[in-house]
């Protein structure tokens, strides 16, 4: 009983000692998802990423069209190699042509498979680089705003746990700085009518 009493007293004293520290802290909240989605550079980067993906998709389509063309030529050569109306020597020549065409097809199939892997890696790398760069700029803006306003801690209310549940269960929104940070981030956003944003994205 005495031991439990001592532990309880120790807990009370610990909380009492920590209370001044919590009282001196100023905590702000921010919606990181909203900042990321509405940052003008995010839209430009996503447009550039979409353009690159479209280019790769067109390259892939051209390769597939070429493969289909080779396949059709191979089928014709294969059929002609069995034509009894021509000499055996000619049939053998056509058979060799069909085999050469088949090798071309297999080589092209390997090239297409390699292209698909490289294309996926390219898009993923560009997406990660874009995301990391933008998050770095957003974090800098959040830190700057927090220092100016005297906040000692900023919590992302859009954060999710590993189980995809909200980490922040309640937020009054009294000290939310999302809009202020967003205005700061978009302060130098280009005028859409000038087209300068598209140029910068490239």
Concise overview:
With about 200 residues, this protein is mainly alpha-helical. It is about 75% helix and about 5% strand. The model is unreliable at about 1-20 and about 195-200 (pLDDT under 50).
Could you please describe the fold and organization of this structure?
The chain has 202 residues and is mainly alpha-helical. It has a single domain, classed as Skp domain (Protein Binding, DinI Protein, Chain A), CATH 3.30.910.20. It is built from six helices and two strands. It has helices at 2-24, 32-38, 40-80, 88-149, 178-185, 196-201; strands at residues 27-30, 153-156. Helix 2 (32-38) runs parallel beside helix 5, helix 3 packs antiparallel against helix 4 (88-149) and helix 4 crosses helix 5. The N and C termini lie far apart (72 Å). Mean pLDDT is 85; it is low at 1-19 and 197-202.
Keywords:
rod-shaped; mainly alpha; two-stranded parallel sheet; 2 strands; 202 residues; Protein Binding, DinI Protein, Chain A
